[in-house]
From TrEMBL:
<dbReference type="Pfam" id="PF01565">
    <property type="entry name" value="FAD_binding_4"/>
</dbReference>
<protein>
    <recommendedName>
        <fullName>FAD-binding PCMH-type domain-containing protein</fullName>
    </recommendedName>
</protein>
<dbReference type="GO" id="GO:0071949">
    <property type="term" value="F:FAD binding"/>
</dbReference>
<comment type="similarity">
    <text>Belongs to the oxygen-dependent FAD-linked oxidoreductase family.</text>
</comment>
<keyword id="KW-0274">FAD</keyword>
<dbReference type="InterPro" id="IPR016166">
    <property type="entry name" value="FAD-bd_PCMH"/>
</dbReference>
<dbReference type="GO" id="GO:0016705">
    <property type="term" value="F:oxidoreductase activity, acting on paired donors, with incorporation or reduction of molecular oxygen"/>
</dbReference>
<dbReference type="InterPro" id="IPR036318">
    <property type="entry name" value="FAD-bd_PCMH-like_sf"/>
</dbReference>
<keyword id="KW-0285">Flavoprotein</keyword>
<dbReference type="InterPro" id="IPR006094">
    <property type="entry name" value="Oxid_FAD_bind_N"/>
</dbReference>
<dbReference type="InterPro" id="IPR016167">
    <property type="entry name" value="FAD-bd_PCMH_sub1"/>
</dbReference>
<dbReference type="InterPro" id="IPR036661">
    <property type="entry name" value="Luciferase-like_sf"/>
</dbReference>
<dbReference type="InterPro" id="IPR012951">
    <property type="entry name" value="BBE"/>
</dbReference>
<dbReference type="InterPro" id="IPR050416">
    <property type="entry name" value="FAD-linked_Oxidoreductase"/>
</dbReference>
<dbReference type="InterPro" id="IPR016169">
    <property type="entry name" value="FAD-bd_PCMH_sub2"/>
</dbReference>
<dbReference type="Pfam" id="PF00296">
    <property type="entry name" value="Bac_luciferase"/>
</dbReference>
<keyword id="KW-0560">Oxidoreductase</keyword>
């Protein structure tokens, strides 16, 4: 028996008929309605009776919500690999990670040549496909910042820019039959997608060649999924293989799964009744039969099987073999194909020994318990956008919560929303926009809910709504000892107090319940000012912001002058109203006051939904340069403080200097109401530099005397005094007491560790 342990997929193979295009689309939609996993289309660009496959797949992706799509298979004899890579990644991004890339070397050579394709022998077509694989993977590898160069016999790229990366770890499936193509499949592809009727020598021969090639390449044979296009028909009586009743199909497909390792079954039919029988009768029965046999045999999931190359990349201190099966299925190790997409964060490079990707709170409990048994560092990640970079590490375990990303309204009257910690604020904004709701949430849609929602949250709606943590009304948290606790004003109120400002020190938050505001369209302004008189600009802008109505929140980014040009300041300003749309006339008046802060160089403003500013962003994190960072809170931008910021900028040690307005509604909260005690400061200053020591030196000299507290999400300085700046007494002592209750062993110690109180 050969069972590679992949989860089963069931799909359809639909003719892309141009004569009745809407019927073709309707069959694809029916495939989704029937609960199938995959819909595929053949690709013959020289066939005038067929729709163009790329156009069809794009249209079907827009007409569906859940089902995955693929060409079956894409003819690479007529397509440029770099273009295919970008088209595939684009369709994957637009569809929310639902595209799979099926490729073939290209048949019907004369028809392709008639359309202008290059004439190639069969051997040359295989060589060209192998070159195409290298180019496609190279375009997707955005973690590599060097230009892509591949000098092949048939395909060349010389200095091509990489990207975009797909939304998910997109597999490449090859339609392969001959030995050389099968060896390429085993060594370099993620799946084998032949048609049963075309196989010469059966599946066993192909599997043997693929498995041998995979082993020679240091891969596990299970790295290659086996899919199969099925002909035949579901009928009342048996008349041969794949020609018979449902019971016969179930028996044959179960045997193919358990004995030949097939895990993807694609039915070749344009008959809706055949599709219904396949989806509603055959597929569930095969899943049940295969599942029962796997449970009895103790079959190891494919994701847990690694080849020699992946095994060699494993890190000391981690007992990989003891990882529970439910976690192994989604875990990513060094050497896995998806490792590059999960190792880094937005601005911080990392090389963890294992990334766990739990899909629910039970798996968070299991993952946390297992991670504590390992002799390595543990990091918890919501989305990985934080500047401090503490959601990755080198050689340790990362517990990634991106699988917990639901957004659910639990009370319409109070606008109470339950949000998974792994969601991003862009996803939240998009989900709430149809209701005219919004939650203040930083200034970038790629920021994760769990990190921001437990630290502070200085956002574009901050002066109107307060900090993000001020809107949190309940949370679910997994503690170090494996308990799943609900925290609110009525349940574990000490934990509820602590997690609003220091949640990363107390446990793993899996969801937050937050009360959204009723916010309609907002005015979003981007204004550029001459900052030659930096201190004067800061003082005038700060005064204008503090005097403005609470609906106005403004952020400033300062840049040094280059090439003889004066320094400039970019203002990003949002004007919003609680309960409805912002008033454009009133916004103009307020923006004119900001423009008076310095010579105006440029300005544009729009009336848009909040979700158009804090946009949904797919994370393609590649490290981002590993900057050093410092952060401090400022009570006011008076003359002395403004001059100190001017001197920081003039030093050249900060290549990015930002000031975020806070205050307004955030000042309504008592300092002891949450673990974030800074309730009188009006601005947050942050600086990014290339060298931590030099940045610290100028920061301590110039900003230290005028700052009043710290916002740790923007700080990479790990000297102990940072802790008391972030949590001034009596907050720190109170946090240490809560820490002693819920994390006495200091398991959660990588995010500016708070030592548990003794005794």
């Amino acid at each position: 028996m050969t069972d590679y342990g992949h989860d089963l997929l069931f799909g359809t193979f639909i003719t892309p008929a141009a004569g009745d295009p809407q019927r073709t689309v309707a069959l694809a939609r029916l495939s989704e309605e029937l609960g199938l996993d995959l819909v595929t289309f053949q690709d013959h660009p020289y066939q005038p009776a067929f729709l163009d496959t790329w156009t069809l797949m794009t249209w079907v992706a827009a007409q569906t919500e859940r089902i995955h799509l693929s060409a079956n298979v894409l003819n690479m004899g007529v397509r440029m690999p770099a273009h295919v890579a970008r088209s595939a990644a684009s369709l994957d991004l637009l569809s929310g990670g639902r595209f799979e890339l099926g490729l073939g070397s290209g048949g019907f050579n004369e028809a392709a040549v008639a359309m202008g394709a290059q004439r190639r022998t069969a051997a040359e077509s295989v060589t060209a496909l192998e070159e195409a694989l290298e180019i496609i993977r190279g375009v997707w590898d955005t973690a590599d910042r060097t230009p892509l160069r591949v000098h092949g016999q048939f395909h060349q790229v010389d200095g091509a820019k990489r990207g975009p990366a797909p939304a998910h770890d997109m597999p490449i499936w090859l339609g392969a039959y001959k030995p050389r193509m099968l060896r390429i499949t085993g060594a370099k592809a993620d799946g084998w997608l032949p048609s049963l009727s075309y196989l010469d020598g059966g599946l066993a021969r192909g599997n043997a060649i693929i498995d041998e090639a995979a082993a020679e390449a240091g891969r596990s044979p299970s790295a290659v999924r086996r899919l199969l296009n099925l002909g035949g028909a579901i009928t009342d009586r048996s008349s041969g293989p794949m020609q018979g009743p449902v019971s016969q199909w179930v028996e044959e497909l179960t045997r193919l799964a358990l004995e030949d390792g097939v895990s993807g079954f694609v039915a070749t039919s344009d008959d809706p009744d055949q599709m219904r029988a396949f989806a509603l009768e055959v597929a569930p029965a095969v899943r049940e039969a295969v599942g029962a046999e796997r449970r009895s045999a103790g079959t190891v999931p494919a994701a847990a099987r690694r080849g020699t190359a992946a095994l060699a990349a494993r890190r000391p201190g981690i007992d990989y073999g003891s990882l529970p099966p439910e976690l192994a299925a989604g875990a990513v190790e060094p050497g896995d194909s998806g490792y590059g997409a999960v190792r880094h964060t937005y601005l911080r490079s990392g090389a963890p020994g294992l990334v766990l990707r739990p899909r629910g709170v039970d798996e968070v409990v299991s993952g946390l318990a297992w991670a504590q048994q390992q002799d390595v560092e543990l990091a918890v990640r919501s989305a990985g956008h934080g500047i401090s970079g503490r959601s990755t590490n080198d050689g340790g375990v990362v517990l990634s919560l991106r699988g917990l990303r639901s957004v659910e309204v639990v009370d319409e009257a109070t606008r109470r929303v339950r949000i998974g910690a792994g969601a991003t604020w862009g996803e939240v904004a998009a989900a709430l926009a149809p209701r005219g709701w919004a939650i203040t949430s930083g200034d970038h849609g790629g920021v994760g809910v769990g990190g921001l929602g437990t630290t502070g949250g200085i956002g574009f709606l901050g002066r109107l709504q307060g900090l993000t943590i001020d809107r949190v009304v309940a949370a679910e948290m997994v503690t170090a000892d494996g308990r799943v606790l609900h925290a609110s004003r009525d349940e574990h109120p000490d934990l509820f107090w602590a997690l609003r400002g220091a949640g990363g020190n107390m446990g793993v938050v899996t969801w937050l319940e937050i009360e959204a505001g009723a916010v309609g369209d907002v005015v979003f302004s981007q204004m550029t000012l001459d900052a030659t008189d930096t201190a004067g600009l800061l003082e005038s802008w700060g005064s204008a912001v503090e005097a403005a109505p609470r609906g106005l929140t403004s952020f400033m980014i300062l840049g040094r002058g280059r090439g003889g040009q004066p320094p400039v300041a970019q203002l990003l300003t949002m004007i919003a109203a609680e309960g409805g749309d912002a008033d454009p006339d009133d916004a103009i008046t307020q923006l004119e006051r900001l423009a008076d802060a310095g010579p105006l160089l440029g300005h544009q403003a729009q009336l848009v939904p909040y979700s158009a500013v804090v946009r949904r962003e797919e994370a393609h994190h590649s490290g981002g340069g590993d900057p050093s960072a410092r952060s401090g809170l400022l009570t006011h931008l008076d003359q002395g403080t403004s001059r100190a910021v001017e001197r920081l900028l003039a030093s050249g040690e900060s290549y990015f200097t930002g000031i975020r307005a806070t205050g307004g509604a955030a000042h309504d909260v008592a300092p002891d109401a949450t673990a974030y005690a800074h309730r009188h400061q009006s601005f947050a200053l942050s600086a990014l530099g290339a060298d931590q020591g030099r940045l610290n030196e100028v920061w301590d000299a110039e900003i230290g005397p005028v700052m009043d507290g710290s916002y740790l999400s923007f700080d990479t300085d790990d000297r102990p005094e940072r802790l008391l700046e972030a949590f001034p007494e009596p907050t720190l002592s109170r946090l240490r007491a809560v820490k002693a209750t819920y994390d006495p062993s200091n398991v959660f110690r990588t995010n500016f560790p708070i030592p548990p109180a003794e005794g």
